[in-house]
Specification:
By secondary structure, the chain is an alpha+beta fold. The protein has 15 helices and six strands. Strands 1-2-3-4-6-5 form a six-stranded antiparallel sheet.
C-alpha cells in the first residue's frame, strides 16, 4: 500500500479528508481515503463504489438520492459537490480520479462512511453486492492484522484495565467491582466469549468450510471442484447454513463462544440434493471420458 499523504480537504470543525495512497482490492487499485466522519475513519467515494461493483457512478448516486431519507448527512454521507468551491476540494477530487468535466456536471459527489456504505448495500440487496461488501469491510475498512497484534500484546493487567473502562461507562459501582476481582475476571471472560470471532478464528472457520467443500466436490482434481460456478455454490451454501443457524448476516459475526458449534455444523454439513446431483453428474463425465 502507498501511504504517502496526497491531499487534504477541510471544512469548519469537520475532520479533514485525507487521501493517503492506494491499495489493491479484488484486482483493482483503489484510493485509501480517511476522515470526514472522524479521525482516521476510512471512507469510500461514489466513484470507488461504482468501480468495485462494476457500475456507473451516476447509478450509485441515483440509488442514494432515491433513498436519501434513509441517509443522515455528516454521519452516513458528505456531498463533496457542495464543497467544490472550498480550499483543496477540487484538488482532492482530481486526485481521487474525477475529471474536471465530471466534477462540474455532477449535482452530487458522495463520500460515504462505513455505515453509509452498509446502508447503500442494503438498498442494492444482491448476493454479489453483499459478497463485495464483506470483502471491503475485511480488507479495506478494518485493519484486521493490526487488531490481532494489539490483542496478542495485551497483558492480563491491561485486559483487566480494559474491562474496568467498559464498566465505568455502564456502572456507577466500580469500587465494589475492584473489591471483587474474581467476579471481574469472570465478567471479562464472558465479554471475550461474546465478542465476534477474531481474525484468526474466522480464518480457521473459513478453512474448515473450504475443506468440507472440497471433500463434497470430490477433491481438488475433480470436475466439480474445478467448475468455478459449482464450487462457489457449495461454499456459499455452507456459509448460508452458518448464517441461518446463528441468525447473522455475515458468518464472521458469529460469537467466539460459538466457534466450536460452528465448526461442528460445518463438519456435519450435508449438501442439498440438487447440489449432490449436479456434483455427481459432473464428476461422472470425467469417469466416462
Amino acid at each position: 500500500m502507498n501511504t504517502q499523504m496526497s491531499s487534504v480537504l477541510t471544512r469548519g470543525d469537520s475532520t479533514p479528508v485525507v487521501l493517503k495512497g492506494t491499495q489493491q482490492f479484488m484486482g483493482k487499485e483503489i484510493p485509501v481515503v480517511l476522515g470526514g466522519f472522524g479521525e482516521n475513519c476510512k471512507v469510500v467515494t461514489d466513484k470507488m463504489v461504482a468501480e468495485i461493483h462494476n457500475m456507473q457512478a451516476k447509478h450509485v448516486r441515483e440509488s442514494i438520492n432515491k433513498n436519501i431519507k434513509r441517509f443522515k448527512e455528516n454521519i452516513d454521507f458528505i456531498d463533496l459537490a457542495q464543497r467544490v468551491g472550498e480550499v483543496d476540494t477540487l484538488d482532492l477530487l482530481l486526485k481521487l480520479g474525477y475529471s474536471k468535466q465530471a466534477i462540474t456536471q455532477a449535482k452530487n459527489i458522495y463520500l460515504l462512511s462505513e455505515r453509509g456504505y452498509a446502508k447503500l448495500i442494503k438498498i442494492m440487496d444482491t448476493d454479489l453486492a453483499w459478497e463485495i461488501h464483506d470483502k471491503l469491510i475485511d480488507e479495506y475498512f478494518q485493519l484486521r492484522e493490526a487488531v490481532k497484534q494489539q490483542v496478542r500484546k495485551l497483558t492480563p493487567l491491561e485486559e483487566l484495565r480494559l474491562l474496568y473502562q467498559v464498566l465505568e461507562v455502564h456502572s456507577k459501582e466500580i469500587e465494589s467491582v475492584r473489591e471483587e476481582v474474581t467476579g471481574v475476571r469472570e465478567e471479562f471472560q464472558d465479554l471475550k466469549d461474546n465478542m465476534p470471532l477474531f481474525g484468526e478464528e474466522s480464518d480457521k472457520l473459513q478453512a474448515e468450510v473450504r475443506k468440507v467443500g472440497v471433500a463434497i466436490l470430490g477433491g481438488y482434481k475433480s470436475n466439480a471442484y474445478n467448475d468455478n460456478s459449482l464450487r462457489g455454490k457449495v461454499y456459499k451454501d455452507i456459509q448460508n447454513q452458518l448464517k441461518r443457524e446463528f441468525g447473522v448476516e455475515r458468518y464472521k459475526a458469529i460469537k467466539r463462544c460459538q466457534l466450536d458449534i460452528a465448526m461442528e455444523i460445518v463438519q456435519n454439513y450435508k449438501a442439498p440434493t440438487v447440489l449432490v446431483t449436479e456434483i455427481s453428474n459432473l464428476n461422472n463425465q470425467m469417469r466416462l471420458a
